[in-house]
Amino acid sequence: MSKLQKATSKAKNIFSHALVPLSLSFRPDIELKPEDVKDAREYIAKYWSKVERFHPKDDESLLGLPKPYLVPSYRLKTGFDYNELYYWDSYFMVQGMLDMDHKELVSGILENLLSLYNRFGIIPNASRTYLTGRSQPPLLTTFIFDVYQSFGKDDAWLKSVIKIAEQEYATVWMGIKKPNERQVYRGLSRYYDINYLHDLAEAESGWDMTTRFDRRALNYLPVDLNALLYKYETDFARAARIFGNKKEAAKWDDVAKVRKENMDKLMWDRIKGLYFDYNFVKQKRGVTSSLAAFYPMWAGMVDDKQAAALTKSLRRFEHKGGLATTDALPLGQFVLGSVPTQWAYPNGWAPLHFMVVKALERYGYHKDARRIAMKWLKTNLQWFNNDQVFLEKYNVVAPEKPPVKGLYPSQTGFGWTNAVFERLCRDYVDRPE
Fold this sequence. Notes:
The protein is mainly α. The protein has a domain at 15-53 and 317-433. The chain is built from 14 helices and 13 strands. The strands form six sheets. The protein has a three-stranded antiparallel β-sheet with strand order 5-8-9. Strands 1-2 form a two-stranded antiparallel sheet. A two-stranded antiparallel sheet has the order 3-4. Helix 8 (223-242) packs antiparallel against helix 9. The longest helix is centred in the middle third of the chain and has 22 residues, at 246-267. The protein is globular. The N and C termini lie far apart (49 Å).
């Protein structure tokens, strides 16, 4: 057997067995120490060169970009290789490298996203010609402020890039007709695809596939999307204050206030202490409890009472290995021939853990944030210690078992998992309680 065949066989076997547990303890009173994560962090540092790409010119379906960028994963000869930049993956991948050593790469990835908007009038799902009909969860203003703060960019730079973000907000996310028919009900927006297909709109959510939308994504106002747009609005207000434009800042404050009022009215369930996606066609809330409910908390949109209720509701999702994406699978999930929903119980995902941890920290729930971060790090580390890889997603209910598969092959690598692992190590392992 050749080295390539052995490597491919090993990669396949990663997902076909249960782990043999090592000495790693999941007890909440035992925290990870720097020496526990040393090898994993060294692997991550070396891995970035494998997923860095530079394609300055269009090449068949692959779009040219002015700067080097990161792709989600790299595996030899799998038939599922990545060579394109992804919108929201890029945001989470840079979270592990907001330092001066990576200034050029991180700033260049943001420049690539801006260049895609300038060329296509949308930041596509990914830098492929066939993926320009939809976008991904909008994190542009947050990315901009991360770069502005981490690398000391000046106000002239901020003004130029915020202007592009305002255009993206207005044309893509607040559009009312094709090719961007997203704002559909009470000033709130939905995920969309130019082909007007529910499953492709669900792909724009990044949660492909999930139990949240009942295979009718075009009918839903998603909690996470509208919280992200609230964050845009408050970021525009923040930028206006930096520029000394109080009138402009007040305008954006008012816009954000109206969005919050409408979201609270339609999506907030006081009894359950959670936000739910809203089906505007049926004019009722969805029934799936999901971690999307914590995006408003991450965005700073909730009051203290709502924050307390959300934190209490963590128990719906929290398991031995971290947070499940939803609270449970409906019975229909197990019907033969149903679409696999990898963005659901029992799987957990790095970007959602990052968002929830940041949400908890924002409202002062530091112990809860630390507990969740440690659970997630241990789940990641257990797999790394056994197989020397990070996974795209994990089974947080039974961390020793493989994750539930989705529509495409389970991936190893893995960009945003690596980055969030490194970021949480910096925030919690390097800084003992």
